[in-house]
Here is the input.
Amino acid sequence: MKKRPNLNRLNNDNPEWTDADISNAVQFTGLPASLQVKLRRRPKTDQLKGRIKNHFDQEVIATF
Here is the structure.
């Protein structure tokens, strides 16, 4: 059985915007170009990922 989310916690982590929040908001295009680039791309990782290739018998594949 799945746990139900704690709605009080969700509301505290992400409160509704007030009129002051809305008036201070800036559109994405209004942000500095350097910040737009950072927000648009995924952060780079220090660990490089490698590609591997596995071969499985048809019986193993059928099991999954």
About this structure: Helices lie at 7-13, 19-24, 33-40, 58-63.
